[in-house]
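Most newcomers find our protein records easier to grasp once they have seen one. There is nothing in a record beyond a sequence line and a structure line. Getting from the letters to the tokens is the skill we practise here. An example says more than a description, so a record of this kind follows:
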Amino acid sequence: MPAPSTIHASLIQRLLARLDREGAPSLRLLEQSGMSPSIVALDPTTSIDEEPLWTLLDLSAREMGPGFGLTAGREGLLALGLLGKRIRQALTLRNALVTLIEGIRTFSNKADFWIEGDEGGIWLLRNADLLAANPGAPEAEFYVIATLESIVQLVVDEPWRSERVRLRHATPEGAFHHPDRARNGHRHTAVFVPARLLDRPLRTLIEPERRTEGARLKDVRRLATERLGAGEALTLGRAAAAISTSERTLKRRLADEGLTYRKLLAQVRFAEYLRLLRSPHLQIRDVAHRVGYPDPANFTRAFHGWTGTTPSLYRESLR
């Protein structure tokens, strides 16, 4: 007999919190879905059976109205726990999607995401076979759609919704504000992402005030940026000493945010690349020299490795 599909308890805990904020009878709905109220006290990383979650979503939609999965899915990235944090620490949208694809099995033992190319962009897909027999499948698909859209939102200022959505199940009336964007009858759940968004940096790299990490990690970023401007690298030991802590504690705080020290330094360098490239008065060769690349060709290769695009194409995308 095949093993049941499992997820982390954090997903249900986040959904229950959303129901509470909406004034819904969360505990009654939880029990009707076959789960114990004790799930609220579980470690968020505890693996539990996935199917009752979709039943809970179905019951919630009956209580709150069709399309509740879309509302709940807006917080899907937070419900992914450490994986969600790692996604939010990516450099570009492309990197964020790869992090999701490579890391989802640490959160759910049978969920799969993958990418298929299409004219003008890509389809980001999630296997829907496991949902086929569950009455909560339509709301589950809505939840997946909203979660995927929330990842794209990391690089877009204005509210973003995919222009094209694929669903396996029929869309309940009133669930989508723009039902024309959804097409039913597909085998898997999917959203279309325009190619122009894939190499965009996450907004937190351009606007560091959006970061939610603690003050000490922000101090480390500031110090690393200052050293980079002086042509020096901030070592882990010096970073820990600067915020009056040990290297071990600093590593643990970084891990809590889905980071390593090496990844933090990479983010600092990349953010500086972006800042300089956004200045129209600097030539590419000047930017390369300022970030430690005497040969602009080496800088272009390094930048392409980070983003999948070149410094000049990135600059053009800002116009």
Remarks:
- The chain has a mean pLDDT of 87.
- Residues 82 and 255 are 9 Å apart (CA to CA).
- The longest strand covers residues 113-118.
